Amino acid sequence: MQTVITLDRVVCCYPDAETLLRGAAARTRQLLAFSYPRDRWYMRVITAFQNFLRRLRGNEFRTFVHSPQQMSAALQRAGLVRIATHGTLVWVVDLYRREGDIPNTLDEIAGTSGKFPQLVGQGQPLDVGAEVRA
User: Fold this and answer.
1) Distance CA 96, CA 34 (A)
2) How far is residue 81 from each of residues 27, 117, 124, measured CA to CA in Å?
3) Which domains does the chain have, with CATH numbers?
4) CA-closest candidate to residue 17, choices 61, 75, 60
5) Count of alpha carbons within 13 Å of 84, Cβ hemisphere only?
6) For residue 36, what pLDDT is reported?
7) 129 vs 1: CA distance, rounded Å
8) Whether this model's pTM surpasses 0.85
């Protein structure tokens, strides 16, 4: 069984995603999976509108859409390599491994024939030996 650090819909809650990811990467021995909103114009509009409504209600909480390239670069500088990515219209999930620590492909890790395991929205830890959903 592999150890997996997960950040499920957490990155969008922090104004400084790079610092958050560097901290998570420092604690990652094997795998790190995280989800984040797609960096698209429609997600920026939705996020801005949600933040506007929060501001009107006096709620100081804000959400953010971060650059995937900057987040990936922060993790790569920390010695992690992206081995899988999967997205929907709204969310993206990336899976990173510690460089040189475990097998190079998701097939070798979970025997998934290239299909990315369901990591977000279920509240369940990833069991890389279990059957995965496409």
Assistant:
1) 9
2) 15, 17, 23
3) 4-110 (3.40.50.150)
4) 75
5) 25
6) 98
7) 7
8) no
